[in-house]
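Example record for the data management plan.
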Amino acid sequence: MLTRPFGDSTAWRAAVLLGLFSSTFSTLVSQLTAARIGRDAAVDWMAVAAIPLRDAALSPEPGWPVIAAGILFHQWADVSWALVFFGLLGRWTAGLSPATLLVLCGPWALLTSSLEWFVLVPLLPFRQPLFTLEQPYWIGFLVHLTSASLYPLFPALRDWIAGRSSPHRRFAEVWAGLAAAGASGLGLLALLGWLGWEVPHLGDATFDQAYLRRMSDHHAQGAQLAALAVAKAEDPHLRALAGLMEAAQNGEIAVMSQWWDSWFPALSALCTPQEREAMPGRARPDEIETLRRAEGRAFDALFVALISRHHAGAAQMADEALGRAGDPRVRLLSHAIRHQQRGEIDLMRGTRDLAAVAAAARNLLLPFGHVTADRALDRAGP
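Corresponding structural encoding:
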């Protein structure tokens, strides 16, 4: 029904209330789901906080003020999208039925997450390439889909604010109950994961065991290199990026360790010397020692060369896992690692604006062998 005028204050007030509900729900689901799909929630919130706060948000250990800033910024964006959908577009949307809104929540999530990832964050108004280059698109889409899944509650909220009996009340009670039950289930899985039990490994474990062991070791060296840059880099932007790298790789190590302890508790997670030798992009001990002794701009240049090669090696390993991993969670983790490692190389190069969007799209979609710059970096020495 196209019965609600553009300026209907009831629709605007209901949109604000719905936005508060949907943003809180998506925040909760994101927090509880993160480690189940290979994400460190604190690092993800830090990347979101970096949209308005820039380098000031980045550190090796995201603190509660930064995490809170990321959550609040995310919730502000979610409320804004609800206001756009039911307020600005209220002439066409405020009278839609719950069933129609349920059908529209997927396309709306696709549209809004795409606008944020491709336009609003890396271009205008924020011009912050870090979020798009650091986080693969599918994370934002899942968050937006979670938020939009509560949009069918709008008709009942609108009627409640208007003080009238709603024919949609029963639906809203059932739908809100299902949302609460889903969040409770995710909370239980998160608690069990924290206690050392994850959903059992799925598929063939042969490759996954070797991959998790090797990637954890590879990340440990990457975090070691990044920690040196946090302490010694002359350029403040590079120092901030190094803090992000250290936090991201340590966060992924923690997730992989949690998975390992639950899936393969009787096996050793330590790499053999032969496995370390075969890892692409790994820095030699003499290269690390040279980096420790370097100072000023010489340190910055050497660090960028070493960590770029290291990141390209991790992207190569992750790309292999996308085709060979047995468990879908390992594949999700690997896709995020591939995107993030390539994106951090682009950030160190100063990639911005449309170039950052193009680079992020390539990093998201193309296999390692098609990204010739990364392959060249993997072969290059410092």
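Summary line stored alongside the record: Residues 1-6, 371-382 have pLDDT under 50 and may be disordered.
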